[in-house]
Design goal:
Rossmann fold; 5 helices; globular; alpha/beta; four-stranded mixed sheet; single chain; 204 residues
Length: 204
């Protein structure tokens, strides 16, 4: 089995590689768009600003290659910023167009809706509450802790929401549309629960 990690100069890939090593699988960092189709499973990671990420993806046609991969029916997992890129647009620093693989948009935390004063970014351990069965969460409790670092979150139809989290108010923290998966927290930084998600992705 070949597992690829999309390299587009947005984020530290070492922790993602290490997470796959810990579940006994070798993942390869891939920066050549034409080679994405060779992989059985693909990870779209990311840390940083949405618009910068899309610009980097478009520089060598990686955005088109990721879309083609998503249409191949093979499993694709977006992590943190990588999950946000799966959507149609983001309101971070103005409106930016995303990959458009899942209907919805990325918005900033609305601090006026917070139940009490909280800091943004949302940083640290928090619970993900499963909304529906997904193979990504096999063997995990109905709610479990993962590690988050983000200031923006997805706004989408509940049909795609497989996980939600409460930070000031409830927001979508994990999504699935057919073979396309996305998770806002960092499974590679979330110890046993995160490694279980990585292991489940390998088994898809």
């Amino acid at each position: 089995m070949k597992i690829g990690i999309v390299d587009y100069n947005m984020g530290n890939l070492a922790s993602v590689i290490n997470a796959f090593d810990k579940v006994g699988m070798r993942a390869k960092v891939e920066s050549n768009p034409s080679k994405l189709r060779e992989y059985d499973k693909l990870i779209l990671p990311g840390v940083g600003a949405f618009a910068d990420a899309m610009e980097h993806l478009k520089e060598n046609g990686m955005d088109i290659a990721v879309k083609e991969y998503a249409n191949s029916s093979k499993p694709l997992l977006g992590i943190c910023l990588g999950m946000q890129l799966l959507f149609e647009s983001s309101e971070e620093f103005g409106t930016s167009e995303g990959l458009g693989l899942i209907s919805g948009k990325i918005v900033a935390f609305d601090e006026q809706k917070f139940d009490h004063k909280r800091k943004v970014p949302h940083m640290g351990w928090n619970e993900l509450f499963q909304q529906k069965e997904s193979p990504l969460f096999d063997g995990l409790a109905d709610d479990f802790y993962l590690y988050f670092v983000h200031s923006f979150h997805a706004l989408c139809d509940d049909a795609y929401a497989i996980g939600k989290t409460h930070y000031g108010y409830e927001f979508v923290s994990a999504v699935q549309k057919d073979n396309i998966y996305g998770i806002q927290p960092h499974p590679e930084k979330s110890h046993e629960n995160g490694l279980k998600i990585i292991e489940n992705f390998v088994k898809l």
